[in-house]
Structures are given as C-alpha cells and as structure tokens.
C-alpha cells in the first residue's frame, strides 16, 4: 500500500490527520509531521528521511507550495532517486480523504497522483457558481429553460 506522509507548518499536519480520523477512522501507513517553531529545516529533513522506506511508494502531502515543508520534502525525495516518491502541495481535507480511499483502488502510483490533482482542483468551488449550476440542471430536467 502507498504510504502517505503529511507535513505542514505549525500543527497543520497533526490537525488534518485528526480531522481525517474523525471522519473516516484510522488508516495504516499514514504519518503526520508538524513543522513547529522550535524546529529547523534540518530537523524536518531528518524526520522525513527516517520515515522513507526505499522499498515502498510514498506520497508526501504538504500544506504550501514553496514552504519549508515542501522544500525539505523535495530535497529528501531527490536523495531517494530509486524510490517511488512524489510531493504534492496545497493539501486540504477533501484531498486527504480522497487520497486515503483512492490508494485502495487499482490505480498505479502515477495514476493516483494525477487523480488527486484533478479531484482536488475540482473540489474548490464557490457557492454562487455551484448553486447557479444546480438550478440550471434542475430547470433542464423539468423541461424548463
């Protein structure tokens, strides 16, 4: 099974993992690393390095593109060139839930990554646009405009 490592600033990682467990229960092969104010980037790198197993596929999910957690995850990934690792930025709860369930399907690692990027982007909506789309769909089904 694909391993998942969540990293982010402050208590983002442990917080989003807590939310996942509240909604979907506990899952194996998922770890959270909080990048707190008392840590250095070297501390974060070291924790990530210790978690990576060169034999498993690992998806590292980060809070922000370009932040220290993202940069350190990329640095660690580059030091495991024979491993199957990818780093995704912009993690939100919907993306994490999708990750946990989609990794249980027959998708390959690359297909899973592509799927997560697609559904994560589609999951960001605003209510005005969404409600207008719903109203239009309902009118079309009822024979209206």
Automatic annotation (TrEMBL):
Predominant place of localization: cytoplasm
Keyword annotations: Cytoplasm, Kinase, Phosphotransferase system, Sugar transport, Transferase, Transport
Keyword Nucleotide-binding recorded: no
Cellular component GO terms held in the UniProt record: cytoplasm; membrane
Domain annotation PTS EIIA type-4: ranges: 1-124
Keyword Transferase: yes
A GO molecular-function annotation: kinase activity
Cross-referenced InterPro entries: Bacterial_PTS_sugar_comp, PTS_EIIA_man-typ, PTS_EIIA_man-typ_sf, PTS_IIA_man
GO biological processes: phosphoenolpyruvate-dependent sugar phosphotransferase system
The organism's place on the tree of life at top rank: Bacteria
Compartment list: Cytoplasm
Protein name as annotated: PTS N-acetylgalactosamine transporter subunit IIA
Organism: Streptococcus pantholopis
């Amino acid at each position: 099974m694909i391993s998942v490592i969540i990293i982010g600033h402050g208590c983002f990682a442990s917080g989003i993992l807590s939310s996942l467990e509240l909604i979907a229960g506990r899952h194996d092969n998922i770890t959270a690393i909080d990048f707190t104010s008392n840590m250095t980037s070297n501390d974060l790198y070291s924790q990530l390095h210790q978690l990576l197993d060169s034999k498993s596929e690992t998806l590292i999910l980060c809070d922000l593109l370009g932040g220290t957690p993202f940069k350190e995850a990329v640095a660690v990934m580059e030091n495991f060139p024979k491993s199957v690792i990818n780093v995704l930025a912009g993690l939100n709860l919907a993306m994490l839930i999708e990750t946990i369930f989609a990794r249980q399907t027959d998708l390959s690692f690359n297909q899973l990554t592509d799927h997560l990027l697609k559904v994560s982007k589609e999951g960001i909506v605003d209510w005005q646009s969404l409600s207008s789309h719903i109203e239009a769909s309902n009118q079309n089904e009822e024979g209206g405009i």
